[in-house]
Automatic annotation (TrEMBL):
Pfam families: Str_synth (PF03088). This is Strictosidine synthase conserved region domain-containing protein. Keywords: Glycoprotein, Phosphoprotein. The keyword Cell wall biogenesis/degradation does not apply. It comes from Meloidogyne incognita. Gene3D superfamilies: TolB, C-terminal domain (2.120.10.30).
Amino acid sequence: MAICGNLLLSSSIAFLAFAIWFNSNDFKPMEYHFPPPPPLTGPLALNKPKILEKILENEVIGPESIVVEKNIIYTCTMDGNCLKIIDGKIVKKIPMTKNEGCEALTRKSIAYCGRPLGIRRRNEKQFIVADAVLGILAIDFEKDDFDFIDNDTIVFTDASTRYGYTDFLLSFLEHGGDGRIIKFKISTGETQVLVDGLDFPNGVQMHTDKQSFLFCESATAKIYRFYFAGPKKGRLEIFLDNLPGFPDNIRISSSGTSFYVAMFSHRNAENPDLFQRLGDWLMTRKVLGMLFRIFPSTVVELLFNRGYGIAVEIDLDGKIIRSFHDPQGNIINDISQLADDGGEFIYLASFNNKYIGRMTKN
């Protein structure tokens, strides 16, 4: 009898604690709706690359962004290292901090080791690295050091003003429009919000017109175009709507005639993922938000279809011209960026995988 009483008391306390958290928590999901995903026909028809393989398997982890220059790849990884790779071999590794324990890959280690999310070539010697914790950095692979850059203007995405890198999914579930596009003048520290009210913006790519840039809105499966100069200055337009997956980064091809869009999850018309179906299930999403803090990986697996890999190539006007498929998701899986080498291959970056993917263009 005493055991039953203790169980009842414990259950009551747990329920009371949950009720207090549920009603007091500032996590407030907003309603959203998705149109049916586009059919996999035409340029979206099944197209599996002739060669689809992994390189550097178990030698890298979470290479979220890459710069590819012929046979050389530059990337930064989840454990806070930036790498120079030549012909598939790591020839240089530069830690972003001098802290120890970065290989632990925990919330705590990320807080003091950093989490690089984007890398771009700045000039002949330097690369710019955008880190979720450390900010904007510059790296010289020949001098083996990092430094804060002190000039130039950078445009970057702020995916969420409410949630940090490790709590990214809460921004998806809340759908509260707390993402922004920011222009940052490094030399003066001056910032300007160019676009706000976004649901997890991701990836910025300058358009060839030099008057606008593109960015993905991951949580809505859209790509936007913002004009910062010219007759349309200040205008925001939808560049491509209703993508066949949830996009991450967008990058221009080496030819300059198209853009590659990486998608971390496929939107299946026949079997929509749970995230798309929970648009007006606000209380359910609030519970999932609580569970995400306890079981993050489980909730991510529950919400998204990650078994089918897909990426697309679009032209300069926002029309899909080609797609790349991996029906089993063996390699095109959790991808965050595509970059081609100017020749036969396209390389696949990932925020999570322990390899860099490589596939033929045709």
